[in-house]
Design brief:
- It comes from Bacillus wiedmannii.
- The chain is globular.
- It is an all-alpha fold and about 350 residues long.
- The protein has a single domain (about 35-350), classed as ABC transporter involved in vitamin B12 uptake, BtuC, CATH 1.10.3470.10.
- It has 15 helices and no strands.
């Protein structure tokens, strides 16, 4: 039998304090890190709300005491709601996707959601003309795009993840090939378009909160809330899945059903965001990478809120700066994608391998 002896009372007190500290802050290494997390999270949320307030009232052409002030603010609230939707969808889906793939570099974009969205838009204007693309809106077209993207992902998962030889890496490879093929077809069709048609199409293919139609919100918001709650409730399993297939299986987690369940939720979030706002390839990667550094924990119950706070702050602050400081309204998504791409290349070059 092994006994532990303490030479003095001070060692006993130190050991007891460390034990109590680890129990009180189990997701963090110390109380100091837990306190730092909550301070940072509250600060990020406050800055995001401040940026949102600036977007609503700053540089408003209508005086605040005018009856027309509220209608202007209501129109701007639509953009704020779209930013919240984008932050929720991309932050939750990217973090969950990277956890089940056990890779902090890849994103759900590898499954081809943006490529399929681009192919749908391009084929519409190519075969039916610019007027058809302009009229391709409303709840029907939105649900059509969401259903097609989710249906494609379900076929992909059911085909490549089911059975004895189901393989997640093979699914990612097939997703990349499908996305590349769809991009090639879309590029070919775009080269045959008239310049005026190309301009109309290009405006659709840039991700922007201005694309969001408030008529979709009564359908989109309940769907996102349900999926977000399901993903957050899945946090404990994601903690284990992020350790790899062998470790997750040894802990009693049904690996393959859990992965498929997570991928379905990821597909729903990415489909909604892409159909509502447009493609944002590196936005989720940027948010997830920053959240890992800021959270100082591997517990998804804390990573998810941090990722949302960072994503919301990036969106609101970027739009505020571009709209009211640099007066460059059309390049917000381009700037976000640029920074995300730079960080992606930096991490890839630093690790030398995917």
């Amino acid at each position: 039998m092994i006994t532990l002896e303490y030479k003095n009372k001070e060692n006993v007190e130190i050991d007891s304090s460390l034990h109590n500290e680890s129990r009180s802050a189990s997701a963090f290494r110390s109380k100091k890190e837990a306190r730092r997390y909550w301070i940072l999270l509250i600060t990020l949320i406050a800055l995001g709300l401040l940026s949102s307030y600036g977007l609503l009232v700053y540089n408003n052409p209508v005086p605040i005491d005018s009856p027309s002030f509220i209608p202007v603010v209501k129109r701007r609230i639509v953009a704020i709601v779209a930013m919240i939707i984008a932050a929720v969808c991309h932050s939750l889906s990217t973090v969950a996707f990277q956890s089940i793939t056990n890779n902090k570099i890849i994103t759900p974009s590898l499954l081809g959601f943006e490529s399929l969205y681009s192919a749908i838009q391009t084929s519409t204007i190519f075969f039916f003309g610019a007027s058809a693309l302009i009229n391709f809106n409303g709840i029907g077209s939105f649900l059509f795009q969401v259903v097609v993207m989710v249906f494609m992902s379900l076929i992909l998962y059911g085909w490549l993840l089911s059975g004895k030889y189901g393989n997640l890496q093979l699914m990612l490879l097939v997703g990349i090939i499908i996305g590349t093929g769809l991009n090639s077809v879309s590029t070919f069709m775009r080269k045959l378009l008239a310049p005026s048609e190309f301009d109309i199409l290009q405006a659709r293919l840039f991700g922007s909160v201005n694309h969001a139609d408030p008529a979709y919100f009564p359908i989109v918001i309940p769907m996102i809330i349900i999926v977000a709650v399901l993903i957050f409730a899945h946090s404990k399993k994601l903690n284990v899945l992020s350790l790899g297939k062998d470790v997750a299986t040894s802990f009693g987690v049904k690996y393959q059903p859990s992965v498929i369940y997570t991928l379905v939720l990821v597909a729903i979030l990415m489909s909604i965001s892409t159909a509502l706002i447009g493609p944002l390839t590196f936005y989720g990667f940027l948010v997830a990478t920053l959240s890992y550094q800021a959270a100082s924990t591997y517990d998804h119950r804390y990573i998810f809120p941090m990722a949302f706070a960072i994503g919301f702050l990036i969106m609101t602050s970027a739009y505020f700066l571009m709209y009211h400081v640099f007066h460059a309204q059309g390049v917000v998504s381009v700037i976000i994608e640029l920074f995300g791409g730079i960080i992606f290349l930096t991490i890839v070059l630093r690790k030398r391998a995917l």
